[in-house]
Specification:
The chain has about 450 residues and is of the alpha/beta class. The protein has helices at about 20-30, 50-60, 75-85, 105-115, 170-175, 235-250, 260-275, 295-325, 340-375, 390-425, 445-450, and strands at about 10-15, 40-45, 65, 90, 120, 125-130, 135-140, 150-155, 185, 195, 215-220, 280, 290. It comes from viral metagenome.
C-alpha cells in the first residue's frame, strides 16, 4: 500500500488519572510504523489529575487534547472521541497497555483488505501477571468478538452504532450489537499486550479464579515476543520493574477513585452469579424468552401446585356429579315421560274394554248353548233313525262351541298384550279387573257328553 493510498487514521485514547502510564503511552505512539502525517491522536481527559502538562511536554504534534471538567462514563467518553475524530479509520490505544510498533499499520492493512468487514480486533488476548511471573492466554471467544482496547474500525460503522452513554465497563458488546457487526480478527502479537496491575479498572487477577476454563490457559509466550526491539527497553523496564513502586505512590489512580466503575462492576458480578446458577427459560407465544431466577421459579411452582390442587378438587366434584347422574337405583321405579305413560294407559284401557266385550260374547255363547241343550227333541218315526232337526241342532251347538273357542283365544291374546304393556309401563297402573266368568265345561267335554247321552238331542 503506497502512502497516497493509505487512509487517514484517528487514534483515540480516553484517560482518567493515569499519570504514571502516560510517558509509556507516548513511547508506544512514537514507535508506530504508520506514517505520522496520516495520523491524528484524540485524547479525552476527564480525570481529577489532568495530564495537560505531560501532553505539552511530549512534543507530539498529532495530539488533540480535550479536558472535561468532571468525570463521565466511558461509553459517553468514547462517543465524544468519535465526534472529534476526522479519520476514515479509527484505532483505539488505551492508556495502560502496551501496543507494538505495527499496531496501527497492521489494523489498517487488515481492514482495507476485507471489504465487508466494518471492524477489526483481537478475540485472543495475552495477559502478563507480574505477581506470579506468568503469561496467560484468554480466548478466542468468537469470530466477531474483541475487547475495545484492540478495536480498529471504518468510520461508516458509526452510522449504525454507538456506545451506551451510561456504560463504564464492558462497553463493547452493545457497540458491536451483540457481536453481529461484520468483523475481522487481528494478529494478537501485532495488536496488544496487557499487564495486570493494582490500578486496573477491573482487577485482572480475578480472571485467574477459574484457571480450568476452556478460554483461559497458561501460555508459553513471553514478554520478549511482544516487546522485542532494543529501543523499547524503557517500556519493558516500566512494566516488569518500576510499575509497582510508581503505582503505590499514586493515590489518584486507585480504583476507589472511580465509584461509578465499582458500582457497575458489582452489578455485573451479581448478574454473572445469577447466570451461573441453573436457569429455566420461559417461552410464551408472541413474547421473547425470559430467564427465571430461583425465586421466580419457586413462586411459579407454588402457583402451579395451587392451581393443580384446585383442578383436582374440581375433577373430584365433577366425577361425583357424573356418578350420581349415571347410577340407576333398581329399587325405585323409573319414571317415564308423562306422554308415554298416558299412551300406554290408553292402550291398556282399550284392550281391557275389548276383553270385557269378549267376556260378554262368551257369556252369550254359553247361554245359547244351554238353551239349545234344554229344548226337547222332536219325536222320531223310528228309534233307528236320527231326526234331521237333531242334526241341525247339533250343528248349531258345534258352531257356537267354535265361536266360544275363538273367543277364548282372543281373550288369551288380549290378556297377553295387556301384560306386555304393563311391563312397559314405568309406574303401577290401576286397572279394573275383568268380570268373573262362570266356569263352563270345555267344548270337547260337552261334545263327548252328546255322544254318550243321545237323549240330549231334540227334535225340531
Amino acid at each position: 500500500m503506497t502512502k497516497k493510498s493509505k487512509p487517514f487514521v484517528s487514534v483515540c485514547t480516553p484517560t482518567f488519572n493515569r499519570r504514571p502510564f502516560i510517558p509509556i503511552m507516548f513511547e508506544c505512539f512514537r514507535n508506530q510504523t504508520y506514517s505520522k502525517d496520516l495520523i491524528e491522536w484524540i485524547i479525552i481527559d476527564d480525570g481529577t489529575d489532568k495530564i495537560k502538562d505531560l501532553v505539552k511536554g511530549s512534543n507530539i504534534p498529532q495530539i488533540k487534547y480535550y479536558e472535561l471538567p468532571e468525570k463521565i462514563p466511558l461509553g459517553a467518553k468514547r462517543n465524544l472521541m468519535h465526534e472529534k475524530a476526522k479519520g476514515s479509520i479509527i484505532v483505539y490505544m488505551d492508556d495502560d497497555d502496551y501496543y507494538p510498533p505495527e499496531r496501527i499499520e497492521h489494523a489498517v492493512e487488515v481492514l482495507t483488505a476485507n471489504k465487508k468487514a466494518l471492524c477489526a480486533g483481537s478475540s485472543e488476548l495475552y495477559l502478563y501477571f507480574k505477581h506470579i511471573s506468568k503469561m496467560y492466554q484468554f480466548g478466542p471467544y468468537g469470530p466477531n468478538h474483541a475487547t475495545a482496547g484492540t478495536f480498529a474500525f471504518k468510520r461508516e460503522l458509526l452510522d449504525i452504532t454507538k456506545y451506551n452513554e451510561t456504560a463504564c465497563i464492558a462497553e463493547e458488546r452493545e457497540f458491536l450489537k451483540d457481536y453481529t457487526i461484520p468483523f475481522v480478527q487481528l494478529d494478537p502479537l501485532k495488536t496488544i499486550l496487557i499487564f495486570s496491575h493494582v490500578h486496573n479498572t477491573f482487577d485482572k487477577r480475578r480472571l485467574l479464579d477459574n484457571p480450568n476454563s476452556s478460554v483461559v490457559k497458561e501460555s508459553n509466550k513471553t514478554v520478549d515476543m511482544f516487546i522485542k526491539f532494543t529501543d523499547e527497553s524503557k517500556i519493558k523496564r516500566f512494566f516488569l520493574n518500576d510499575i509497582d513502586e510508581k503505582l503505590a505512590k499514586y493515590e489518584a489512580g486507585k480504583p476507589s477513585m472511580k465509584p461509578d466503575v465499582l458500582k457497575q462492576t458489582k452489578e455485573i458480578d451479581e448478574r454473572r452469579k445469577q447466570q451461573q446458577q441453573p436457569q429455566i427459560i420461559m417461552q410464551q407465544d408472541g413474547k421473547d424468552p425470559v430467564a427465571l431466577d430461583p425465586n421466580e421459579i419457586i413462586n411459579m411452582i407454588n402457583g402451579l401446585r395451587s392451581n393443580l390442587k384446585a383442578v383436582m378438587a374440581r375433577n373430584d366434584e365433577l366425577e361425583d356429579m357424573l356418578e350420581k347422574k349415571t347410577t340407576v337405583k333398581f329399587s325405585e321405579p323409573i319414571e317415564a315421560p308423562s306422554s308415554s305413560v298416558q299412551k300406554l294407559k290408553k292402550e291398556i284401557s282399550e284392550l281391557e274394554f275389548k276383553l270385557k266385550q269378549s267376556a260378554i260374547i262368551e257369556a252369550d255363547l254359553r247361554t245359547d248353548i244351554d238353551r239349545l241343550r234344554k229344548q226337547p227333541p222332536a219325536p222320531a218315526k223310528s228309534q233307528a233313525t236320527i231326526p234331521v232337526s237333531a242334526i241341525m241342532q247339533t250343528s248349531q251347538i258345534s258352531e257356537l262351541q267354535f265361536k266360544l273357542k275363538q273367543s277364548s283365544i282372543i281373550e288369551a291374546e288380549l290378556r297377553a298384550e295387556i301384560e306386555t304393556l304393563r311391563k312397559q309401563t314405568p309406574t303401577p297402573i290401576q286397572q279394573t279387573p275383568p268380570p268373573k266368568l262362570t266356569p263352563q265345561p270345555k267344548p270337547t267335554v260337552f261334545i263327548e257328553r252328546l255322544k254318550s247321552e243321545p237323549e240330549l238331542f231334540v227334535k225340531v
